[in-house]
Amino acid sequence: MQIVLREVHDSDLPVFFRQMNDPDSLAMAAFTPKDPADRDAFDAHWARVRASDAENRTILADGDVVGSAAVYGEPGEREVTYWVDRAYWGRGVATAALRELVTQVPERPLYARAAADNAGSLRVLQKCGFRVTARASGYANARGAEIDEFVLTLDA
């Protein structure tokens, strides 16, 4: 399977919206919008994101839109994030996409956060060179509770 990152197109947004409304994906990600089904809030979020200086990418697998990846935040505090359609979990898509993203954005350090029980995301991040550097907790909208999370760092 060929994994490619490209700029986000308007036509990607309905796919992202559908992907972000998968109940299993929401539960795994944990830290999600308050109401992921609110299309107006989703569109407003993506308008802000696309107007910012964030590095936003669409993930393509053999030409199909299967997710998104980004680096955002202030210099010295930049963080990675990604979302992959559940149908592609366990197939190396997130790892390949994140590896490409951190190659395209050579700035270091980069940070990431993952729910402490999200073994898949933690594995992806660690395969890409991130290491756990802190433990925190935060309110997870998708779970309706405060949960533990790991902060990971990718150094030079």
Topology, please?
Blueprint: E1 3-6, H1 13-19, H2 23-29, H3 39-51, E2 55-61, E3 64-72, E4 79-84, H4 93-104, E5 110-115, H5 119-127, E6 131-140, E7 145-154
Antiparallel strand pairs: 1-2, 2-3, 3-4, 5-7, 6-7
Average pLDDT, rounded to a whole number, is 96
Q: How would a crystallographer describe the biggest sheet? A: 4 strands, antiparallel
- Per DSSP E runs of 2 or more residues, the count of β-strands stands at 7
User: What is the terminal-to-terminal distance?
Assistant: 29 Å
What is the C-alpha radius of gyration, as a whole number of Å? 15 Å
The poorly predicted ranges are: none
Strand order of the largest sheet: 1-2-3-4
Percent helix range: 25-40%
Order of helices and strands: EHHHEEEHEHEE
Strand content: 25-35%
Based on CA inertia axes, which overall geometry fits?
A: globular
**Number of distinct helices:** 5
Content-based structural category? alpha+beta
Structure description:
- This protein has 156 residues and is of the alpha+beta class.
- It is built from 5 helices and 7 strands.
- The strands form 2 sheets. A 4-stranded antiparallel sheet has the order 1-2-3-4, with helices on both faces.
- A hairpin with a 4-residue loop joins strand 6 (131-140) and strand 7 (145-154).
- The radius of gyration is 15 Å and the shape is globular.
- The two termini are 29 Å apart.
- The mean pLDDT is 96.
